[in-house]
């Protein structure tokens, strides 16, 4: 199978050309199951004199362009993540535009064909046999799936073994992954690799928001054998660990994420950089973060010039960086989070302060949140008290993270529910959908009309937080996150209308309608109905069971009522 990928697959080189989609569509082809999880696995070695070289790629027919890239300079083993943009060119993937995975997955875990994720295990150890005395290598998993916890857990199993046994070990791992069942939302899967079985549950859009992935998995294990290693989540991070140095400012950062503001995270390591960026992006779930984000960004990224130009306003993107020289580059950006090594103040993590942007000038800039952002909502002091009490009582980090995640979920839902309620009012009444007319249009979204609903049906119904909710909505309307949310919801509503139309046609007396109609009118009905059925199949519309089959039967009955010459033409068409 020729995958024909010309990839640059590390933080400094974000270009990926995909193979032809048709090649991956056939499950019988080699590496088809592997492709549903990973694009490829590669090994990159770093020489202090020669620079970086891609040493090995699996599958072997994936072609990589070698280019100098930036790696973290640290002893020991380091894990981090990055995200890269796919090159312009042919799109090809196991995932299609209308694939079943994205249709059934939560919006935050749907595949975006324009981007890839890289999951890295970097090792640097002293080695006297190497010139300048260091062995430096990275094992990188490249995937379209944002399953950070799953793939970092996978790397913890395979990377140490790979560094001991090298290529034969990697080949065996890739062959094992090629036996895994493809990710299907709602299923609990056993994934064997190197003598370990990871049990994971693929989240579904039908899951209860804020529900425990572990409990969901237990419901569906059924006849699966007990797995030695159960992952409680495939994508969630330890939010408390990620946010512990700025817990008191979490609500401000939630507002910045909601509004899609340009943000730079300057961290002491690629691990902290990537985890902080991914945690911030997840803070507005179940709303999808629709701007670009780079968990680990370096001067070698091909978007470096695009994202650092001073001739225009900073783009709507969140960048995670470690190089202190970026301070000068990003001086014009409105929001910079400077993180240092975690320091404790007694039992409590020392909290960074909000500072003026004017103070961000030197390379030894102190940790802090450098911004002029004025919060729209008042801080929720009860959350801070609850978390601080948890620290004093030595509450486990996973429990603290669950408290944080629940708080952020409820905050986002309080913001989104009024929008959802208003959007539902724009939908035509079900009785206005009739079989013989095109479905009525969804009414256009009016910002002012929506604002008029807030007094009686605003966030105050579900949130105790006071503040300028109206101002927050007005700014949200200008953000890519609103545009992405509205496009997605409008598309879902349009599909629902299409489903309703198909169902009322199915309940109509088609044969009775044709009795007093001319052949031209009947042929027109056949062609339109056939087009609707094809569209429903292609878009995998969620119509009631049996509707499409029943309509197909009606269609054949109507065609058989026509003269034979017309029947022949219509069967060919």
TrEMBL record:
<dbReference type="GO" id="GO:0005085">
    <property type="term" value="F:guanyl-nucleotide exchange factor activity"/>
</dbReference>
<feature type="domain" description="UDENN">
    <location>
        <begin position="39"/>
        <end position="498"/>
    </location>
</feature>
<dbReference type="GO" id="GO:0055037">
    <property type="term" value="C:recycling endosome"/>
</dbReference>
<dbReference type="InterPro" id="IPR037516">
    <property type="entry name" value="Tripartite_DENN"/>
</dbReference>
<protein>
    <submittedName>
        <fullName>DENN/MADD domain containing 6B</fullName>
    </submittedName>
</protein>
<dbReference type="InterPro" id="IPR024224">
    <property type="entry name" value="DENND6"/>
</dbReference>
<comment type="similarity">
    <text>Belongs to the DENND6 family.</text>
</comment>
